[in-house]
Structures
1.
Amino acid sequence: MPILEARGLRKTYGSVTAVENISFEVEAGEIFTIIGPNGAGKTTTLEMIEGLIPPDAGTIAIDGLTWAKDAEKIKYRIGIQPQSSAMFELLTVEENLELFATFYPKAKSVGEVLAMINLAEHRNKRVKSLSGGQRQRLAIGLGMINDPDIVFLDEPTTGLDPQARRNIWDIVLNLKALGKTTILTTHYMEEAEKLSDRVCIVDQGKVVTLDTPAALIGRLTREREVRLSFLDGEEAAAAAESAAQSAGSVVRTSREGAHLALWSVQPEDTLYGLFGFTKERGYRVEQVSIREMSLEDVFIAFTGKEWRD
Amino acid sequence: MNRSKQFRKLFAATLKMMFREKQVWFWNIFFPIILMSIFMVIFGGNDGSDFKAKVAVVQPARNEAADGMLSGLRQIPVFEWKSEAPVTAEQADEWIKEKDVDGVIYLPADGQTQSLKLVVNTENEQSATTQVIRGILEQVVQQSNLAAAGVQTPPFHLEMQAVTSGSEDLSYTDFLMTGMIALALAQGGLFGMVDLVEMRRKGLLKRLRMTPVRMGLLGLASMLVRFLLGVFQVCVLAAIGVFLFGAHLHIDVPTLIVAFFIGSLAFNALGYLFSSFSKTLEAYMGVANIASFLMMFISGIFFPTNSLPGWLQPVKDALPLTYFAEGLRDGMVYGSGIASTEFWLGAGVMALWGVVAYLIGATLYRRAKVEAR
């Protein structure tokens, strides 16, 4: 049985439809990531599930509990790091954790949480003087203080430098090791690919597709982009282009000066044939690459839109 | 975690946050102290006993009447003589223009036209000092006339005594001190809800709604912290008024407590109302400033309200600060009030303001919560 079930969620603000129709199930213990461009409805979806705003239509069940009947019980079992990461600015890290701990009937020890979010040495610093990454870690820590079964992280790494981002990834993976269920939203495809068990792509308030990152990438069309650049200039590139076009596996080509790009359904065979040709002619190839497929391509393939961070 | 422990923690956290916010100290403690001290230094020190008017005398011609009057004038204790001997008219004019003297008295020029003339700088024409000099000279003239008419002892004379409703005379210092205490407490309420605006803007209110914490407990904790700050304000301002400026206290505890609680609650409710429709810090501060400025001058904080023009009187009668200041004066310097109808009428007006402001504020907050995304 899934630990979280969202069915047909819908939310409109006046004439604006923030969420049109979103349904998914999350299994216990997995990291479930919702990705999508700004305004896709990620935060609205999360806030409906977190009980902050009532959906216009649809149902939400958290381990069989509903907001209408069991709001208190649900609040004990979920932990939230909201996008705004609001906390008491004039209190220290430790005081914030201690205060939030009193809101719950049972809570983790403050020391344990400090260790998990790696802020033990900054425990006496006021929130005001924390760096962006430290702040975000504390926000996650506040969401973990009640030892929740389900953790919601709304864009925890947005605006952080790569090192701080990696620190957050460690915390998220640690949560998984502890058996927690994590629902994550992010802007970064790389992050979704690295952390998620399953990815749900949303756009314009609807679920575009939902699966494991590997399965989503595998579902893309077979053609791969191959790039070559030639030391012998335009002439060599043009000759190679016409040679490639005659090969059956190449779908299309494009050339810019000495740089050639081609799309092939069998990139290995295409390259083998091309290298035979260049060797024969004595052309020197400077660079060769086969572009890796990523979730970004999945997004583009499913929505027909360019992805922007 | 039980309710009372949660409340204690919330109270401790709120108290810590207040201590750490420098703005709170400045606006709630230092600013009222500075304002009160300035007003007391400027307006509070004018006791009748050390009043002096600096004058000079011009004697155009020597004659018996003028000599007599001059020696009479020399007896008047409040006159301080710029020059013992009579001076020339040119010298006197210069002193007046330079404001070296408050007034110049011209003695009668001859025995026929017995007129006494007072010359003052136009700028000071309406000043209290001019009025006093003029009053004294009129007395002198009248005495001289009576003497000339042969009346030895005038049968009637006027005695004046000021009576206040309190057990002690209300000096201006007492009046200002209690007014400043009322203003400081009122501003604490009007401006104090700035945290709420910030908490909402930064999403902290939303964050707290994600937890099972009782918002009512949080509200109660911050209210208690505010009352403590209020008590501290009363003590500090009263101590400064009494020890530095010689204000008198005649405290009636029940009156003071009732006025303090109802007034503080009413102004906190007003602050709550302002916070409910202010989306930014600037908007909130603007509204709170307008409210506090209007009330400060109309409600008799610095000067008694009977000097207000007639059309402003009904406005004054409607404002809560008027009754807050009066209530605190009843409780702190008159030592009475709890038994009077007027006191309870004032308390009623304040309570009405508080209840209405709270209800509107709560409605606006509820609507904002529905619309919030």
2.
Amino acid sequence: MARKDLLDITSLDRQEIDRLLDQAAPFKELFTRSVKKVPALKGKSVLMLFYEPSTRTHSSFEVAAKRLSADVTNFDVTQSSITKGESVRETIETLQAMRTDFIIVRHKSSGLPGVIAKLTKAAVVNAGDGAHAHPTQALLDAFTIKEQYPDPTGRKVLIVGDVLHSRVARSTSTILKKLEVEVAYLGPGSLVPKVGPENIRRFTNYDEAMAWQPDFVYLLRVQMERQDVQYFPSLREYHRLYGVTEARLAEIRDRGIYIMHPGPVNRGVELCDAVMDYERSLINDQVENGIAVRMSVLYHLKPESGDS
Amino acid sequence: MPLTLNADDIAAGIARLAQEIREKSAGATLSFVGIRSRGDEVATRILTLLAENDDREMNFGILDISLYRDDFEHLHENPKLQGSDIPFQVDGAHVILVDDVIFTGRTTRAALDALSDYGRPAKVELAVLIDRGHREMPIQPDFTGIFINTHRLDHVLVSLEGTDGTDSIQVVEAPTP
């Protein structure tokens, strides 16, 4: 089942998902050693091709690649010839000539990583494309949930916020459905899609959503830099309607519900400051698990470059 | 005629390892590190024998060397990881590295690399249940349970009770060209 690229969750079968997740645990164990690095990808090159700004996903992939001993090159698009009008195809031909083994791509256009994957022998990992997919986020979310419930079948995850524009919501819902986890959405009617994966409950009222008795509340980030803001009356209003306020945190604590967030958090919008100290907040676990899961992904993909 | 060794032969090999290790390392705190898979079982069985008439402190850990292999390029699919478990301080430890079979020496090479990423042992010795020859690296065991003569292309199939259900060793000869 050697796979060249990881473009989305939809194309992974259950066996591949289980394997990528199970094999992430041995990588996480490495983080407790004094030497956190292993030589598995020694001599391999990883190119970071980020057309959209990202600090967390970018550094997570970079740390993952370096802990596997790969050489990491940042193709800084803001300084590159892309601003001079070079097409993606020309860029890829240039990269192909550099014989890079892995390309990590983030782009605002849905499907672009798939186009790149067809043009190159390198293994391509989608690090987020438009509203389409963010497969490594989904894998790290699933891994984080499985750390709490090794068999997550039938557990309930409530995803809160701008589901419509969120590739995180899309990819994470897809993987959770494949793991037979129940998923529901909560958000303003205008931001929760009417169509989409089946058997997903849709709530617009916080209290109704809590009555569904979720095991996890997954807060999506309000994308200040994107168009989201115009969908809400105001950020304060968003916090009042859908945010984890101090009063709601007390209820969440009573019920033993875990809180997740893909980061970076907007304090006072998706959640109040007190959530950062909540004992069942998994937000920092997600960051650490992101590195382990991305190491597992890089370890399992097989580029076509090399002797073959 | 393929060579087959049975449970008694294996028990004798493990007893020989325990005896040699005991004689050579009197009094020292030993840390056994078994290489997955089956090296961990050989190490456990040596430890059980040693514990019968020796009450000194001994450590036990398991090493998965998959991430340290030098043949990734030649594999269709990367090896399945099971993870390592080294629950003691490697810095300054007297380590007995244990494997079921030594062949080319490449596994041992990888294990030494992996071990050094946990710390700097005071001493590392190598114990193997079976030495089948044909080294490709300058690595020799300090303790050997059983020597077997093989051709380079022969397969040595090891089955151990704890891992596989029965104790047996089979040498399957390579077909003559």
